[in-house]
Specification:
The complex is a heterodimer of chains A (about 325) and B (about 325).
Chain A: H1 13-38, H2 53-60, E1 68-71, H3 76-81, H4 86-93, E2 117-120, H5 128-140, E3 147-152, H6 159-171, E4 175-181, E5 184-185, E6 188-189, H7 190-193, H8 200-205, E7 209-214, H9 218-235, E8 239-244, H10 262-269, H11 273-283, H12 289-312
Parallel strand pairs in A: 1-2, 1-3, 3-4, 4-8, 7-8
Antiparallel strand pairs in A: 5-6
Helix pairs in contact in A: 1-2, 1-11, 1-12, 2-9, 4-12, 5-6
Chain B: E1 5-9, H1 10-24, E2 28-32, H2 48-52, E3 57-59, H3 64-76, E4 80-87, H4 95-102, H5 105-108, E5 118-123, H6 138-142, E6 148-151, H7 155-165, E7 172-177, E8 184-188, E9 200-203, E10 208-212, H8 215-229, E11 234-238, E12 241-243, H9 247-257, E13 260-267, H10 272-284, E14 293-297, H11 306-312, H12 316-326
Parallel strand pairs in B: 2-3, 2-4, 4-5, 5-7, 6-7, 10-11, 10-13, 13-14
Antiparallel strand pairs in B: 1-8, 6-12, 9-11
Amino acid sequence: MQSQVAEPVRLDATKAKDLLYKMILIRRFEEKAAEEYTKSKIRGFLHLYIGEEAVAVGVMQALTEKDNILNTYREHGHALARGMDAGAIMAEMFGKQQGCTRGRGSSMHLFDASRNFFGGNAIVGGHLPVAVGMALASKKQHLSNITCCFFGEGAAAEGEFHEAMNLAALWQVPVLFVCENNGYAMGTALRYTHAEQDLVKRGAAYGITSSAVDGMDLFAVMEAAEAAVLQVRTTGKPYFLVCNTYRFRAHSMFDAELYREKSEVEKWKKRDPIPQVEQFMLQQAWIDEDGIGEIRQRVEDEVQRAVAFAEAGTAEPLEELTRFVYTEKS
Amino acid sequence: MSTATIKTTYREALKQGLREALANDERVFLMGEDVGHYGGAFAVSKGLLQEFGEDRIMDVPLSESGFVGAGIGAAMAGMKPVVEVMTVNFSLLAMDQIFNNAATLHHMTGGQLNVPVVIRMSSGIGRQLAAQHSHSWEPFYAHVPGLIVLSAGTHEDARGMLISALKSPDPVIIFEYTFQLNTEAEIPSDAGAVDITRARVRREGRDISLITYGLGVQKCLEAAGALAVEGIEAEVVDLRVLRPLDEETFLASVRKTHRALLVEDAWRSVSLSSEITSRIMEKAFYDLDAPVQRLCGLEVHIPYPKHLEEACVPQTADIVLEVKKIMGL
């Protein structure tokens, strides 16, 4: 099994339109999800990614289909950027059996094995060792795929982060650690949780090549991710990429946001990654206002389709509840 | 199957099981603390590094959550890792990985993922290692759906359970017993894979069922031997598979003997015995001639002095005495 080495970024109008579509899709999909939450169609936890779209889209486009992806519970954006069906994700959140894990997982546990998309882990830091193991398996099987593991800066305080970084460096396995630093571990700011707030230094402690990038800038993320992926793929060694970003919405639907000033949120919203990309594309004459309108309309249609698909979905019969505790004998 | 037997120590049985597993399948590798250059904390993997090389026998740092999680990831991505947690006591540091990932992923993903990892851990009391190194955490693991939990109470199971566990698409935990490492027993000379779905009657008897696992197996067999001299025929049921439980075998035994004594080293409250008792009540109550009784670990933290340590868990003499009480003798 051989996967292609990703080409360096060659941005053109077609690619830029595709990336803009994905970012707007994530934004509108999540706004719709929040709306459906208020209608009680979605329950449990719902963690929105709004504001951070450039990270998922920028990193994901640098990966190939064979690469493994692992995520946190704030992963709608990654799932959509990976090409998972918006309908299957919405149906998952509606708890329908047409959902991507038959409705068993919820918003926090999106999986699609056919796309090497391995969740959706809701224990902070819990998927980092697993990512190292998947990369170890690639190395042992002489595969050229890499493993990309997204997590927040909150995870960097967990023991599992340090254990995983050490193992990855010790074993020299092809894993890309992407730290999405949105400044808050739930509602507690970085300055209250990390003695060393320059997260990039964590990589150096383990001899892992590390860099930081402006996570609000899609093109900067793309460039950094391309370079990181190329290095992981060609050297087979780990890489630690910190994407500094910001979530515009609350941590979850239960969060009253008492821990940050509205002015801070407004300040970051001025750096919203989506208008930045639109602006750039307009300047390049890659698109005009009508073209942006068309993209937004396509997104609206897709989101509507996803909701309709979820609405039309069916509840898993109670008799199925105990399936998959153990592998069914074929 | 040949009837020829060979004498082996429990340690050697474990080692030969590992060797066979490694030789059988290139995807199998052993990872654990001190398994390579040190030769295994209990010398179980001594010489395997030299025989199979560093790719197959991997020393790991003291990062239980890290390397157990890595084993889970490697299993998800096509390998057959055998993860050794030096002792069950340290496995508490890897519980997030075992419970939240290994046990959960198949169900949580609607059957999309399998985690065919095997996690071995040495367990139990008996070496004067005090409170933090003498745990019997079998009931913890047996509590969790999605795990297959095995207890190697005999040399034959020490030899064969790993080989069978590696064929499972689901995560398997194997408890091995440090106290037994130097003990010798006869096993078939062609011993290999064993069934890992059923309990086993280790000695037949008509008067009472002694239902046990792990270190309880040898003690119950010794007790049954002593009782036979006095004309009491005790049947010994080795549970072997602590999850999912094979209730058919122990219920059949109870229906035959009409009496049951449950023996285990783990603390009495919320133990395997609690569960077995319930199932007997639910499904074989009218077959009983006497209330089900239990001999379990005393609910204290295991102390260092030998006489106190021994008093913490059921001993052969306790079993003999309790059986006589149940029999009204």
